[in-house]
Design goal:
The protein is mostly beta strands and about 170 residues long. About 0% of the residues lie in helices and about 40% in strands. The strands form six sheets. The protein has a five-stranded antiparallel beta sheet with strand order 1-2-3-4-5, with no helix packed on it. The protein has a five-stranded antiparallel beta sheet with strand order 8-9-10-11-12, with no helix packed on it. A two-stranded antiparallel sheet has the order 6-7. It is globular, with a radius of gyration of 16 Å.
């Protein structure tokens, strides 16, 4: 499962770049797992498009979504959800988790363009192109409602876009 061997970085098709150690980790991704050839372990549920970031608990839920449930491999519990357009109600925690399910990466949703670090509890907001990893400290700023700090990125395909100042 998720151990201290879990990597900091961004997952692409076959590699992720570790922005803390400045190294590229080569992994083999499957639908719900990836195999890490560095640690010789299979990690389950790591940052696929079915992962979401919970703005209520400030934690990443590594989940396998079905129509009405998701299984949380961190807590080993099944959360019964009612998924609607922009929120889902978690009857396990009795809280509404306000998330944005779109094609683009915004605060509150992890896609293939964002990586949440479960050890430092910070999101690494990056822009991936075919060959370039853009630095998060460029472009415009916007306010992060989770950490009460300003971050220097909004994700589109190749540009930085500030959703607050447009």
């Amino acid at each position: 499962m998720l151990t201290d061997k879990t990597h900091y970085g961004i997952l692409t098709d076959k590699t992720h770049y570790d922005i803390l150690t400045d190294k590229t980790h080569y992994v083999i991704l499957t639908e719900k797992t990836h195999y890490d050839i560095l640690t010789d372990k299979t990690l389950y549920g790591i940052l696929i498009k079915k992962t979401h970031y919970d703005i209520i608990t400030n934690k990443t839920h590594h989940v396998i979504l079905t129509d009405k449930t998701h299984y949380d491999i961190l807590t080993d519990q099944t959360h019964y959800d009612i998924l609607i357009d922009k929120t889902h109600y978690d009857i396990f925690t009795d809280k509404t988790q306000h998330v944005i399910f779109t094609d683009k990466t915004l605060y509150g949703i992890l896609t293939d363009k964002t990586h949440y670090d479960i050890f430092t509890e910070k999101s690494h907001h990056v822009i991936l192109t075919d060959i370039t990893l853009y630095d998060i400290l460029t472009g415009k700023t916007h306010y992060d409602i989770f950490t009460d700090k300003k971050h220097h990125v909004i994700l589109t395909d190749k540009t930085l876009y500030d959703i607050l100042t447009d």
